Amino acid sequence: MLRFEPGGVRVDGRWRFSSGIEDANWLMLNAPCPSHPDAAHTPRFLVVISTSEVEKLESWDSCGMAATGSHDVLTQGLLVPHERVFALDAVFAQNPLAQGSDYIDKVPLVPYLTTSIIGPLLGCAEGAVATFVTSCNESLTVKDPRICEQVAHSAAQLYTAELLYGSLIKRLHDAGVSGQALDTQQLLLLKRDRAYLAQICVQVVRRLVERLGASSLAASNPLQRAWRDIQTMATHRDVAWNESMQASGDAVFRSIAAPLQKN
Length: 263
Description:
By secondary structure, the chain is an alpha+beta fold. It is built from seven helices and seven strands; from the N terminus they run E-E-E-E-E-E-E-H-H-H-H-H-H-H. The chain has helices at residues 88-92, 110-115, 118-139, 145-178, 184-212, 222-233, 241-262, and strands at 2-5, 8-18, 26-31, 45-50, 55-57, 71-80, 85-87. Strand 1 and strand 2 form a beta hairpin. Helix 3 packs antiparallel against helix 4 and helix 4 runs antiparallel to helix 5 (184-212). The termini are far apart.
C-alpha cells in the first residue's frame, strides 16, 4: 500500500517476486496510491527503495530459475522521499522529446522490456540441445536412428524459433528507428509470437529429456536443470500462452466480423 504524505510516500505491505534481490542494492516497487495528488492521472506509482530498507522474506523456493533469488519483500511504514516516486505509466511511456541519442530513450518501453525474456528462453533451449548432443557423442559409438531423428527435429524447431526471434527484434527495431509506438494489432501479434516461441523452446527441451529416460533424473544433470529452468521461464506472464492466444484469436474473429457487419 502507498500513502501520500507531505514528506514523501509511505510504503507498507508485502511485494512478491523481487527478482535478483540477493545481489541488488536497489529495488523498484509499484502500487496504486489513491491519496496522491496525481492519482486521477495515473493508476500506479513506482517507488525506488534501497534493499537495506526492506525485509527480505526467504520465500523463493523454486526448482527452476533458483538462482534468480526472487524473494518477497516486506516494508513497514517506510517513508520514501518524493524524488524517488514516479508515475508508473510516465516511466514507460513514449517520450519523443527525450535528450538521449538512442531511440530506446524515446519510444514506449514496455514492448521492448517484455520481449527481453525471449533471450534466456532461447539460450536455454540452445544449451539443452548442445548438452544432449555432447552427451550422446560421449556415450554412443553408433548413433541410434531415433536419437538422430529427435536431434534433427529439435534443431529444426530451434532454427524456426531463431527466425521468429529475429522477426520480433526487427519489428521492435523498425518501430524504434521510425519513432513510432506499436499499435494495438502489432502488440497483439508481438505477444502471440512471444508465447508461441516460448512453447517451441519448451517442446525442444521436453523431447530431449524424454529421450534420455529415467536414468537422467538427477538434479545434477545439466539437461534436467535446463528442463526445470525453461518450464519456470515459460510461466512468465510476458510469454503466457492462454492470455496471448485468446486475445490474438479474439482479434482475428473481430477483424473478420467487422466487414460482415457493414454489409
